[in-house]
Design goal:
The chain is α+β, with helices and mostly antiparallel strands. The chain is about 25% helix and about 30% strand. The protein has four helices and ten strands; from the N terminus they run αβββαβββαβαβββ. It has a four-stranded mixed beta sheet with strand order 3-6-5-4, with helices on one face. The N and C termini lie far apart (about 50 Å). The N terminus is likely disordered.
Length: about 180
């Protein structure tokens, strides 16, 4: 009897530890089971910070991102023949957008078809997480933002997605973690 209790207790402890380890990696924000962090990596101090977008008109870009998407201006500065700024979403300091404006620019291709946009190599889009896709899209429509294609659900990543562009062709994705 003591042996059975001891084995049962050992099994219970092992299962509890295994379950805790597995659930410790579950991330409700991403909807994925995340792999363990690699704190021993020589590059462990690296993390995401911002994405830079190139636009021709500084004032128009800052106005568009602050009025259409409620981004906040964090810092503005000149560099050579350009004007730059860091912007952040209305309710987050974890992701920034760097606007690089003015100076010499080549024309950019603007897409009205998401599939066609995927035929270009290089940078494609930035992605912003949203809590409620329908509510967000309703508000963006009121603000004159036009989608590229229709919102869709991608089962393999449990997300509802929608795409639009800023006036200069920079593609922006919205993603809502959502179980179907």
């Amino acid at each position: 009897m003591k042996t059975n209790i001891k084995l049962t207790l050992t099994a219970f402890v092992c299962l509890t530890i295994a379950a805790f380890s597995a659930s410790a990696q579950a991330d409700p924000e991403t909807g994925f089971v995340m792999p363990a962090l690699n704190t021993q990596s020589p590059l462990a101090g690296m993390s995401g910070n911002h994405v830079g977008i190139r636009v021709p008109d500084y004032k128009a870009a800052v106005k568009w991102y602050t009025e259409k998407l409620d981004f906040r201006v964090i810092k503005e500065w000149p560099y050579a023949d350009e004007q730059l700024a860091y912007l952040a979403p209305a309710n987050s300091n974890d992701f920034w957008l760097e606007v690089l404006a003015e100076g010499k620019l080549k024309p950019v291709v603007k897409f009205n078809d998401l599939g066609k946009s995927l035929e270009e190599s290089g940078y494609h889009h930035i992605c912003l997480h949203v809590d409620d896709m329908d509510k967000t899209l309703t508000e963006l429509k009121k603000r004159g933002v036009t989608l590229v294609g229709q919102p869709f659900y991608l089962d393999v990543i449990s997300r509802k997605l929608a795409f639009f562009q800023d006036p200069w062709g920079n593609m922006i994705e919205l993603a809502e973690v959502k179980k179907k």
